[in-house]
Amino acid sequence: MTPSPRTPGRQDAPHEPHPNHDRGLEFDLSTLMTRRSLGMFFGAGTAAAALAACTPGGSSGSAATTGTSSASAGSTAVSYTHLDVYKRQAPAASASSSAAASPTVTRAIAECSVEIPQETAGPYPGDVSNGPNALEASGVVRQDITSSFGTSTTKVDGVPLTVTLTLLDNANGCVPLAGAAVYAWHCDRDGKYSLYDSGLENENYLRGVQEADANGQVTFKTIYPGAYNGRWPHMHFEVFQSMNNATAAGQVLAVSQIALTDAACREVYASAGYETSARNFPNTTLKSDNVFGDDGGIYQLAAMSGSVSAGYTAGLNVTV
Predict the structure, then answer these.
(1) Please, which residues have CB within 8 angstroms of residue 279's CB and are 6 or more apart in sequence?
(2) Residues 55 and 314 sit within 8 Å (Cβ to Cβ)
(3) Superfamily of domain covering 116-319
(4) What is the pLDDT of residues 131-178, one digit of tens each?
(5) Which of 83, 169, 315, 320 is buried deepest, with most CB atoms within 10 A?
(6) What integer best gives the mean pLDDT of the chain?
(7) Which residues are CB-contacts of 185 (< 8 A; sequence separation ≥ 6)?
(8) CA 185, 25, 21: angle at the middle one, nearest 5?
(9) What pTM value is reported for the model?
(10) How does DSSP classify residue 109?
């Protein structure tokens, strides 16, 4: 686990596409990095079980699909995961781990070995690296990130989404990173970012920091992000050694992104309020996305379950 520069990884994109997918260069503050060693946290033969383990509230009896679903918006919850996988050799879970009693964390430890790909923080991080700084503002440490904090209390609308990240320390035997901190942020249902987009400069919703518990887990309650031209639907996050580092905008351990599943996106974007996203979503695929495109996002594709009416859950193992 080696601290990373604040903005490592591949280039992110602003809202407008560019023919060669090398978008937003005027905003990006990082240079390209090669992928770390290949691997995947799901084996094809255990995809359904892995989904149940990785996603809080997931069910091993739920249907798993690769990108389509028979479920319609508002229907009974259906689970989605990525089946284009590579089975990897994984170390055995440590019996001495303080989190070993948790099935979710036991599974994550057993699948730990490949570090999360390092990505750019993108044009709109709000972490002082590109203009505004939300990290040192009072109120940024919170689980529910659906409203602004400080001078504004604006609350955004959208389909509910609960995201849980399980942080693991690869260099020290894949033990849970208890006490680490995560800063997460993403766009609203129209594809716009607080602090940056026109009219939202004084808003800071859909941004927040959480400290990892004894299981190395952080959970954010938010809304399903929208789709904007040039990018596959995603969320950004930075991992810090401690809460003090996070709230002081200190050096990060990892900067990466979460890719959302095709099936869930199709359902959400067919619902009321996501009309802009419904128009934008078909314009970029996982393969053409300039962050996830080199491997289809297999290391960052969340395990997801839920429905438009009940809301969705997303889970991802994050090895640093």
Answers:
(1) none
(2) yes
(3) Aromatic compound dioxygenase (2.60.130.10)
(4) 999 999 999 999 999 999 999 999 999 999 999 999 999 988 899 999
(5) 315
(6) 76
(7) 124, 125, 126, 134, 145, 193, 206, 207, 208, 235, 236, 237
(8) 90
(9) 0.74
(10) H
